[in-house]
Model the fold of this input.
Amino acid sequence: MQLNDLEQEDEEFRNFLKEVTSSKKSNENKQGPSSNDERMAIKPEPGFCLKTKRIGEEISEEKVFINVCTSTQINAPREITEEELIEIVKSEDPGRYRVPISLGEPMADLDKHGQGCVIFTVIIHPNFYHRAQSSPTFMNFLLMLIYEGLENKYPQFKLDPKNNNNNN
Done:
């Protein structure tokens, strides 16, 4: 690869970062401050990383990394059994079981091959994290929460749940 090629890729990545940050700022300016937009600084503990792809008509399957972390600063959900979780998920009101979760903002970065990617940080309580690590039922529920939560919060990010690599 020539120096000019690297400079061109570097410039393309800088433009991508400008585009992402300027669209975020313009959206913030349109919406103004939100009274339910509570923010606090949290230093999470590492958990695992999900690798997936962003899908859509105009997107060429951009890589997305989701860092799933833990912190005791996030409230723990109430304890339930696997059977209760299955019953709740199958019910007409699955929202009655709440899992507090912090869904971080998308950050543009480069993967190990120097290709553009997006990184999200998701934070949950350590008790729920350990429960998901030891139970496929709770892990599937956690993954569903993460994907749906990110897509609801950031509608421009349609994620491919079939292309899900969990790197513990």
Observations:
- Helices lie at 3-31, 82-90, 126-134, 136-153.
- The CA atoms of residues 87 and 93 lie 10 Å apart.
- Residues 3-31 form the longest helix (29 residues).
